[in-house]
Specification:
Elements (H helix, E strand, L loop, with lengths): L1 H17 L23 E4 L6 E6 L3 E5 L5 E6 L4 E9 H4 L3 H12 L6 E11 L2 E10 L5 E6 L5 E9 L5 H21 L1 E2 L2
Antiparallel strand pairs: 1-2, 2-10, 3-4, 4-5, 5-9, 6-7, 7-8, 8-9
Length: 193
């Protein structure tokens, strides 16, 4: 019986306490939900203008393929990123492999304002050799590849561009996943005679 009286007396006090107003405060931002596919089906790229072929994930959509030069953009809408692929023939441009590499390297090192680290890793694939650039920090292009054939006459440059405002620490799973896909693409690259 005493317990009922205590509960009856406490109920109005609890109701009054529940009606007090509190100052609103902002909640911390949540991380974006990113679902990575377990595996991809691949599509073969070939073009009458480009003297190369490669495999890329089938979810990629070719958004730009020029009829007069070999510049290709492959967009991945689920991650809001694209791969920009540029082919250059050293004989046509009057530059050798070293000149193309130095030009590309200068572009990459313009990221030093925001990059925490730029790693240059040697890359050896059946189509040739080159350098894999891993860029960490708040940069829009976390991976880039420079690849040349054994003669140094043909050069391809591949860049990964994010088109989102998310921070790279949130995007790290996607970055790691797409780096593996770029490595697969580089490994399947073949020169067409």
């Amino acid at each position: 019986m005493n317990l009922r009286w205590i509960a009856a007396a406490a109920l109005p006090a609890l109701m009054l306490a529940a009606c007090t107003t509190y100052e609103p405060y902002p909640r911390p931002m949540a991380y974006a939900r990113i679902d990575l596919p377990a595996s991809y089906a691949y599509t073969a790229f070939s073009s009458p203008v480009c003297p190369l072929t490669f495999e890329y994930p089938a979810t990629g959509v070719i958004t730009r393929e020029l009829s007069d030069s070999c510049w290709v953009d492959i967009r991945f809408p689920e991650f809001d990123l694209k791969w920009h692929i540029t082919y250059r023939d050293a004989d046509a441009g009057g530059k050798d492999r070293a000149a193309h590499y130095e030009e590309y390297r200068r572009l990459i090192y313009k990221h030093t304002k925001k990059a925490l680290r730029i790693e240059e890793l040697p890359l050896q694939v059946p189509a040739g050799s080159g350098v894999w650039f891993n860029i960490t920090g708040e940069v829009g292009t976390p991976s880039q590849v420079f690849l040349a054939d054994s003669s140094g006459k043909r050069v391809v440059m591949i860049s990964m561009y994010f088109q989102t405002a998310l921070k790279n620490d949130s995007l790290e799973p996607v970055i790691a996943h797409m780096r593996n896909e770029m490595l697969h693409m580089s490994g399947t690259l073949r020169w067409v005679e």
